[in-house]
Amino acid sequence: MTNSVSAPVTPERIYQFAFAYAMPLVLEAAIRHSVFDVLDEGPKSVAEVSQATGASVRGLSSIMNLLVGIEFLSKDRAGKYSLTPESSTFLVSTKPSFQGGLIRHTSEHLLPKWLSLNEVVATGRAVGSVNQQSTGTDFFEKFVVDIFPLSYPVAQELAAHLKLNASAAPVSVLDLAAGSGVWGIALAQSSPHVRVTAVDWPGVITVTRNTVARFGLTDRFSFHSGDLQLADFGSGHHVATLGHILHSEGIDRSKALLSKTFSALAPGGTVAIAEFLVNADRTGPLNG
Ligand SMILES: C[S@@+](CC[C@H](N)C(=O)[O-])C[C@H]1O[C@@H](n2cnc3c(N)ncnc32)[C@H](O)[C@@H]1O
User: Fold this and answer.
1) Sign, Cα dihedral of 17, 21, 24, 28
2) What b/e readout covers 247-258, taking b as 16+ CB neighbours within 10 angstroms?
3) Relative to the CA of 203, which ligand 1 atom is closest?
4) How many angstroms does the Cα of residue 90 sit away from the middle of ligand 1?
5) Of the residues 43, 47, 241, 244, which has the maximum number of CB atoms within 10 A of its CB?
6) Helices (H), strands (E): how many in the chain?
7) Cβ–Cβ under 8 Å, residues 169 and 194
């Protein structure tokens, strides 16, 4: 029996989802063509954005109108486009709060893998492994710098939570699967007593080294290249960070990694894990 007060069932959401793949691609095109950067200087018409970026008026007007529709831009009566508070804060590439790095990987690295989903569902087999050095290095050396802003504020919160700035004694941090080094960098910035051991594959540890150097923290770090399964983690660390690594290691390797990490800690040490987690039903939140 139908409930007389419930809203009528419509196919609206299905039509929206039918083209939902377009949204990150539109954001990527706007980021790659510096639309948000140019509009950060002030409101502009499509022609002015075209002149400033070199992209076509036809292409820009398509994506900029959609960006108004999905509320990353606004448009006034004179046809001038402006940033919204959200795009102004998170999509201007020159700002430290920029979060568009992940989106830059949509067309080249992320979507091509999702295109095999029909087959993956049929077979239950992953399309590829990012936990193998041969294939993972190529992916991660491009990826890790762009995801730095995702974890930097969270890593700063971790430093505050651990009250590292109050420590008068040396603090040894083990940054596992360090990537850009974001976890070790934020912890090292919180106290001059923090020393970091960063571990990642040889191809990626070079990226870690470069990022750490940009922050002027090279003398506070030691860099260890190797696979997490084989690398020597040392011992007596007070904090170990596992930033966005367990999800790609799988259950068995994650258990072994946690056990090895625990053994590398000083008594009373802390293991800090960052992941996009889901609820117990595994139905949300969506980014998990
Ligand atoms: C998603 S990134 C996370 C990087 C960083 N921890 C962060 O939170 O931004 C995963 C990192 O783990 C590294 N990695 C993945 N599997 C690894 C393994 N088996 N051994 C060593 N490093 C590995 C990758 O090179 C990459 O830097």
Assistant:
1) negative
2) eebeeeebeebb
3) 25
4) 24
5) 241
6) 13, 7
7) no
Distance, CA 70 to ligand 1 centroid (Å)? 33
Take residue 269 and report the two structure tokens written for it: 């040490």
H or E stretch including 250?
A: helix 246-263
Cα(180) to centroid of ligand 1, in Å?
Answer: 9
Q: Whose CA is nearest to atom 11 of ligand 1?
A: 177
Q: Which ligand 1 atom lies nearest to the CA of residue 176?
A: 6
Q: Are 55 and 33 in contact (CB under 8 A)?
A: yes
Strand-pair category, 73-75 with 81-83: antiparallel
Cα of 285 from ligand 1 centre, angstroms = 23
pLDDT for 2 equals 52
pLDDT in tens, 83-123: 999 999 999 999 989 999 999 999 998 999 999 999 999 99
Query: Measuring CA to CA, which residue among 259, 245, 140 is closest to residue 201?
Result: 140
Report the candidate in 139, 26, 45, 152 with the shortest Cα–Cα distance to residue 91.
26
CA distance 255 to 258: 5
Q: Which residue has the higher pLDDT, 167 or 263?
A: 263
> Rounded to whole angstroms, how far apart are CA atoms 287 and 85?
21
pLDDT tens figures, 219-230 = 999 999 999 999
Question: Which pLDDT score, from 0 to 100, does residue 287 have?
Answer: 85
| pLDDT in the model for residue 129 | 80
Q: CA nearest 107: which of 32, 28, 210?
A: 28
The amino acid at residue 65 is N
Q: Is the pLDDT of residue 267 over 70?
A: yes
Peptide bond just before 285 cis, omega within 30 deg: yes
- Beta-carbon count within 10 A of 172 CB: 20
Question: For residue range 39-59, what is the model confidence (pLDDT) as tens digits?
Answer: 999 999 999 999 999 999 999
